[in-house]
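REVIEWER CHECKLIST
Item 1: Sequence provided? yes
Item 2: Single chain? yes
Item 3: Sequence as submitted:
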Amino acid sequence: MIKFDDIKNSSEIQVYIKKADDSLSVLGYTEHSFHHVGKVAQQAKELLDELKFDERTSELARIAGYMHDIGNVVNRIDHAQTGAIMAFRILDNMGMDVSEIATVISAIGNHDESTAVPVNAVAAALILADKSDVRRSRVRNIDFATFDIHDRVNYSVEMSKLELNEGKSEVTLHLTIDTNICAVMNYFEIFLERMLLCRRAADYLKLKFKLVVNGVELL
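Item 4: Structure as written out by the authors:
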């Protein structure tokens, strides 16, 4: 059985993650390297753990989270589908069970908001984990004077936390935004589609999705 540690310790996967992030750096995108994929992997697993999914499903979500952005090594456009195909080849060569490969690649292929659909619990957890990773430290540009709107929005986020309520009926993305850097409306201008996707992912998991910015519920 292929474990998460097998994925994390794979030199092949490490190269694809590094090279994909290098390409995105040239394009001016935020950080998509080991910090991002590691955080997404852990968040996806923890969410399914809290919802009492079986241990293997949670581990598959962790695996999908770690591999979800490797398609960027080919091109940012359609990177979800490209990454799914790459993941199929890698996981097949590693000897993963066919049914588990199908679950992982369907999640990877459905994580980008332009084409995403929460087709299974792993995909839903991946979507919520990925789209909630908004933070200042992902901004690469060090010259504030040249920030575009994406830089400003990400840089303005001082805290982001995805939280499941005690009754396990609601999942809330809590954000603290410095409104001197970016107005809340600018956040919606960039991320509204992502937040609506999070709502659909939460619906699949039979949860209500809420967005709370600076203590105010907005969605």
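Item 5: Key structural point noted by reviewer: The two ends are 40 Å apart (CA to CA).
Item 6: Recommendation: ____
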